[in-house]
Write a structure and sequence with these properties.
The complex is a heterodimer of chains A (about 110) and B (about 120).
Chain A: E1 4-7, E2 10-14, E3 19-25, E4 32-38, E5 45-50, E6 56-59, E7 62-66, E8 70-75, E9 84-92, E10 95-98, E11 102-107
Parallel strand pairs in A: 2-11
Antiparallel strand pairs in A: 1-3, 3-8, 4-5, 4-9, 6-7, 7-8, 9-10, 9-11
Chain B: E1 4-7, E2 10-13, E3 19-25, E4 31-38, E5 42-51, E6 54-57, E7 64-66, E8 76-78, E9 87-94, E10 107-108, E11 112-116
Parallel strand pairs in B: 2-11
Antiparallel strand pairs in B: 1-3, 3-8, 4-5, 4-9, 5-6, 7-8, 9-10, 9-11
The chains are: A mainly beta (about 110), B mainly beta (about 120).
Chain lengths: ~110, ~120
């Protein structure tokens, strides 16, 4: 059974201060690694799918990378609107195992 | 495209009552899932379906029932509500043909916040 661990639990950054969120997992193999953004009171919003070690994807100020046992979500020059909880998950299609998330706060 | 819709948004039940949480998607996705989200525990899979007429249990299925009579709808039934079922429930759907093995992302609904007293 895959276990997904995210760190840190919470992160406060000044606007423009770049950083990275970590997601590590226990089971190797042919499964996807997914990043989601969740705003308070809303459902998770899909950001990225990564499938192979070495894969990278970018969207605006976010860049996700994947190794054999972990993934990073890099946030470059964040803005206050990037404040949210970022969730990482592993699995295929209908069966995902989620981490507990990193609560990111960007201070103006 | 409305995506994944869930009703109701909020619900309060008394212990022992039953109810159905509704979920519908208009993206013609074969795969649908129900998760619950509790503080400090992340999202946990309750039940899932790989197509109309086919359902299976996830990590925390006890106390819940599902059926999938159409591609669009995947209701979750609470048989006899307990305070431990107080949670936020999310429905999700995804595409991808059986046997491909390639990962496909799930798209989530807005959630139903359930309180059992």
């Amino acid at each position: 059974e895959d276990q997904v661990t995210q760190s840190p639990e919470a992160l406060r950054l000044q606007e423009g201060e770049s950083s990275s969120l970590n997601c590590s997992y226990t089971v190797s193999g042919l499964r996807g690694l997914f990043w989601y953004r969740q705003d308070p009171g809303k459902g998770p919003e899909f950001l990225f799918t990564l499938y192979s070690a070495g894969e990278e994807k970018e969207k605006e100020r976010l860049k996700a990378t994947l190794t054999k046992k972990e993934s990073f979500l890099h946030i470059t020059a964040p803005k206050p609107e990037d404040s949210a909880t970022y969730l990482c998950a592993r699995g295929i299609r209908e069966k995902l195992t989620f981490g507990t998330g990193t609560r990111l706060t960007i201070i103006p | 495209n409305a995506g994944v819709t869930q009703t109701p948004k909020f619900q309060v039940l008394k212990t022992g009552q039953s109810m159905t949480l509704q979920c519908a998607q208009d993206m013609n996705h074969e795969y649908m899932s129900w998760y619950r989200q509790d503080p400090g525990m992340g999202l946990r899979l309750i039940h899932y379906s790989v197509g109309a007429g086919i359902t299976d249990q996830g990590e925390v299925p006890n106390g819940y029932n599902v059926s999938r009579s159409t591609t669009e709808d995947f209701p979750l039934r609470l048989l006899s509500a307990a305070p431990s079922q107080t949670s936020v429930y999310f429905c999700a759907s995804s595409y991808g043909a059986p046997g491909q093995g390639r990962a496909y992302e799930q798209y989530f609904g807005p959630g139903t916040r359930l309180t059992v007293t």
